[in-house]
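User: Predict the complex.
Assistant: Input components as received:
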Amino acid sequence: MHDARDAEDQRLLEAREHKLLLAGYFTPVRDRCFFRLGSREAGDEAAQRVFLRLWSELKAGKTYPVPFRVVVWMVTEWTLRGFPMGRREVELPDDWDPAAPDAYAEWEADHDLGALFADLPARQRQVLDLRYRLGLTPAEIAEQLRIEANAVHQALHNGHAKLREKLRV
Amino acid sequence: MSERLFELFDEYAAAYARGERPSADDYLARAGAERSQLAALLDEYLRRAPVQPPNEDDRRYLGLLLAEEPPLLALRVERGLRVDDVVAALIDRLGLDQTKRAKVKRYYQQLEGGLLDSRRLTKRLRSTLGDILGAGAEAATAWRAPSQTAPAFLRRAEANEAIPAAPSAAPAAEDEVDHLFTGGGEHEPS
């Protein structure tokens, strides 16, 4: 699901196009910080910390043995951990070792939309993929998969149930 | 969980997947009492969804976040203006009372240092800043000093400009200057 993004990130890393690399993550990081912290002010402060951290590492020539998006979300999680309960003084760990074996093993499956819906029937997974990876309308999905509109809505409903189960919302 | 909540999730996620930039603020506002549940769903989605290519706004705002010095300061220096020049221009163009000069200067320095929430600036003030500092002023005000470096900016500003004393813990009633710098945002009539 993330192959194209990972390849583009790798290209930008090798070309040392660091600002362009980070710009791709600007909106999702900023919005995730907002969603987690509940206010734009706190969210923007957290997002700025995330990007300053990543920027300083990239400028220092740090390399990563895992896809860059995993690094972004890891740094984001660490940053956000310091914000709830007003513990803004909590800083990111300086001793993290991205080269350590299995450092990201659990992250890969946990950061993939496809993995969330893995135990649904194949056709329903296709519907969810077209809706949430490509943004197709239900009518476009029905046409592309040659299925009834009802089947699309049923797949979306089941996908939502999975989300509810996962998040206990 | 209500159907309405899933509809909002579905709408946001599909728009994001198409490469659009759905407004997170608007969606949470539309969720009303289910705001926190929608935030959790969308956070989970963004954590897992493929990241979209950046647009011009992403590049510009990231540049502001990473700026090593306040962009508003850079704009002012680029134009060869001192803080006092900007303050005098603000007072003149906004028709403010000359006795409020120290207060306007204090607010402006906070804004330039990224220490004032720029979303609360009134449209009138934004427009006037644009006239004085150029079209880049709007984007430049979005920059915030990282919390760990903010004291350094403050110390530098204090050394250079001798900032007037901060307002007391029990400030007087809001005046026009307070309104210009803090009365904008969502409550300001369009």
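Chain A touches chain B through 53 residues (CB under 8 Å).
Let me know if you want any component modeled separately.
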